[in-house]
Amino acid sequence: MKRLSFRYKLDLKWDQAVWDHHFxxxxxxxxxxxxxxxxxxxxxxxxxxxxxxxxxxxxxxYAGAVRRPHDRLFLEAKGSVQVDRSGxxxxxxxxxxxxxxxxxxxxxxxxxxxxxxxDLQVVAGNSGQDxxxxxxxxxxxxxxxxxxxxxxxxxxxxxxxxxxxGVTTVKTTAAEAFLLEQGVCxxxxxxxxxxxxxxxxxxxxxxxxxxxxxxxxxxxxVWLSDRWLGMDPTxxxxxxxxxxxxxxxxxxxxxxxxxxxxxGFAVQSQEISVKVExxx
Length: 280
Fold this sequence. Notes:
It is built from five helices and 15 strands. The chain starts with a strand and ends with a strand.
């Protein structure tokens, strides 16, 4: 078990005034068997109304509005959480078995999974292991995925993909990012989730923060028999007690940390900064 302090800052600016601005910022750490909020302090300026809301996935956040003209919205959330990965898991829902808008596989992703399964067949044959057969999701190579095989698949994706900011956007799908073989954490997560679901492993998108300073982060969670296992394909590692989850869902569309709309003709810029430290 670790105790972590965090600070999440969101600074939205416009080059001229906007109005009738409605926003949703889901910066409240998830409360579950693995994670417990100890303290939380949030400041949002300006705001005419603010309500705490919870969506169908269980993500909590602040829904608010600024109706008067303004050219900046600033949020700072800070607090502390306890994280214990040995705790009880969250419940499973069958929707995570199926492709979603951002994770729909194309033929290139299907071919990549076939290559991975062929490699696993070779490894199993050389070691004398019995790799369980049975085509999943129409894939001819078969092979049921356990944690070790999923870690191998994550490693293969890590070797195939390059972390390059600016080549994708928040609207880029898994298929589009895989074609480029470049992207950021959102893209890594979408491609990995697409591969998992195609292989018959339920998977979902998670967003939050990890130890250190930088921006928000995204990873995947896979369902293995009776628990969710966090896997971070961007860093090619399992999610441990240095991660703080804020949201989860089928993909980015369900689990984005902030979203909103406003009236006006302004150009928007956005700065996000995150700092997570261990409390010793």
